[in-house]
Design brief:
There is one protein chain. By secondary structure, this protein is an alpha/beta fold. Helices cover 30% and strands 28% of the residues. Strands 1-2-3-4-5-6-7 form a seven-stranded mixed beta sheet, covered by helices on one side. Helix 4 (102-114) packs antiparallel against helix 5. It starts with 10 loop residues before the first strand and ends with a helix.
Amino acid sequence: MTVTWEELGWERLADGVGRVRLPGWDCTVGLVAGAGAALMVDAGSSLAEGARLRARARELTGGDVTHLALTHPHFDHVLGAAAFDGAEILAAEGARTVLGDARGRAELREDAVRQRLDAAAAEEAVSALPVPGREVRGRLALPLGGGREAVLAELGAAHSTHDLAVLVPVPVPGGRPVVFCGDLVEESGEPQAGPDAAPSRWPAALDRLLALGGEDALYVPGHGAVVDAAFVRAQRDVLAARFGVSR
C-alpha cells in the first residue's frame, strides 16, 4: 500500500514535493522526489531527528535521499546532516568555512545548547557534522530524474552569512512553483537577525528570492505556514524599515 504525505504528517505542496514542520523550533524540512533521486532541504537539529527524516523520506519516495541542500548554517537546520550518509550535501558558497572549522562548529554547539538542545545530542551531532561536498555560487540546476529538477540559488549574506534557496519548478500546466526559503522568510514569528546576519543586505536578498520564484510561487518559510509573494514582499518592506535600508 502506498503511504500518503498526509498520513506521515507531511504537507504535500505539489506532485512529489512536500514539507514537514518539526517539533521544538518549528523548523521546516522539505523533500523533492524525482525518478531514482530525492532531494531533502535541511536536515533537522540532531542526528536522531535526521535519522527520522531519512526514514520518512524512504517511505514517501521508495528510495534513499540522494541530495541534501542546507539553506543556512544554523543548528536547527544542519545538525542532522550526518544521518544522510551517502547523500551529496550542497550549501551556499562559503558555508564550508562555517561548518568545517573548529570555531564555526563550537558556535553551532553553543547556540544549540543555548536554545535547549540536549548537550550530549549537540556534541554528538557537531562531532559528526559533514562539510558540504558542493558549494553553490549563483544558481545550480540539479536534475532529479523523470523530468524533475531543483534550482539551488545562492542569495548571499542576509539572515545568515550564507543563505541558499531551493526552487522547484512544476512541470505541469497550472501548477505552482515551490520555493524553500530557509530563514530568509519566517511566518510564525518575526525574522531573527543573529550575530551572523547581514541586515542591510537582507531586503535585497528577498528581492532576489521573489525574482527566483515569481508571483505565483508557493514560498515555504524556514518557520511557519506556507506564504505567497505578497507576504514575502511585505516582509521585505518591514525588514527594510526595521534596518533603515532604502531601495
